Amino acid sequence: MERLQKVISEAGVASRRKAEELIKEGKVLVNGSVASIGMKVSGADEIIVDDKKIKKEDKEYYLLNKPRGVICSLDDKEGRKLITSLIDTKKRIYPVGRLDYDTTGAIILTNDGKLTNILEHPKNEIERTYLAKVSGFVSKDDCKKLEKGVLIDNNFCKAYHVKLKKYDKKSDESYVLLTLKEGHNHEVKNMFDSIGHSVDKLKRESFAGLGIEELRSGEYKKLSIKEVKRLYALKKAD
Ligand code: URA
Predict the structure, then answer these.
(1) 75 is catalytic
(2) Minimal CA–CA distance to 128: which of 155, 111, 103, 152?
(3) Cα separation, 201 vs 221, whole angstroms
(4) For each successive 10 residues of the chain (238 residues), what is the average pLDDT?
(5) Contact residues for 99 (Cβ-Cβ < 8 A; gap 6+)
(6) How many CB atoms neighbour CB 175 within 10 A?
(7) % helix, strand, coil for the chain, step of 5
(8) Closest residue (by CA) to atom 2 of ligand 1?
């Protein structure tokens, strides 16, 4: 048995919040009766949302090499290009987490809410590896500071591993590879800012072990069943 709003959102009909609103508005029927929030349903129950019967939707999974100038949102008041517009599908897919407008690299898009919850939940410590081009020389001490953790807006942000790949003396810029196991908004940029380096360019090289080496900017691939199963297996026991 699962919560009704969860089942509705996982069927790809609406976000979980929107599903809750629809239930509150009395627009959801379970086996012919008006449903209530928190109600639990099974696969045998007939669920009707806004006069339409919902069915389990086929799941799709994509790994995209996000280009710059694309927003990780389902709509944008400023009319900027949406990440979902890069994928050729009729399904209501969405990005797992976010990359900034000017950040490039690995991002998963799917209509599988269950997997999204696994990949976004901090307890599962999903690895994200970034290559950051930052101002100045990033010393061993700087790397250690980020590995020990810095406090940003009441969030303790900690890198799992930080390594200077290259220092360009001419431009006075460092190329730093860092792996995080959680995701907060603008985390990498804020972490570097907090130790006195500003991020000029940021690329996510891999997410949950999925790299984008073979994908050009803007290219994507469908994940295989084996890859999806491996992602599901990243869920840690409660
Ligand atoms: N950290 C950032 O600062 N930006 C991103 O896009 C991702 C992680």
Answers:
(1) no
(2) 103
(3) 24
(4) 86 86 95 93 88 85 98 93 96 94 98 92 97 98 98 93 98 98 94 98 98 98 97 94
(5) 66, 72, 105, 107, 204
(6) 16
(7) 25, 30, 45
(8) 186
- The encoded tokens of residue 58 equal 């086929």
Task: Output the CA 176–ligand 1 centroid distance in Å.
Answer: 14
Which tokens hold the place of 45? 């129950």
Hey, how many other C-beta atoms are within 10 angstroms of the C-beta on 25? 10
> Cα(175)–Cα(39) distance, rounded to whole angstroms?
51
**Which residue, by CA, sits nearest to atom 7 of ligand 1?**
99
pLDDT at 55: 78
Please identify which of the residues 45, 50, 75, 100 carries the catalytic annotation.
100
Task: Decide: 78 and 57 in contact? Cβ < 8 Å.
Answer: no
Determine the pLDDT at residue 58.
83
Question: Is the shortest distance between the CB of 99 and ligand 1 below 6 Å?
Answer: yes
Predicted local distance difference test score (pLDDT) of residue 238: 81
Taking CA atoms only, the protein residue closest to ligand 1 atom 3 is 186
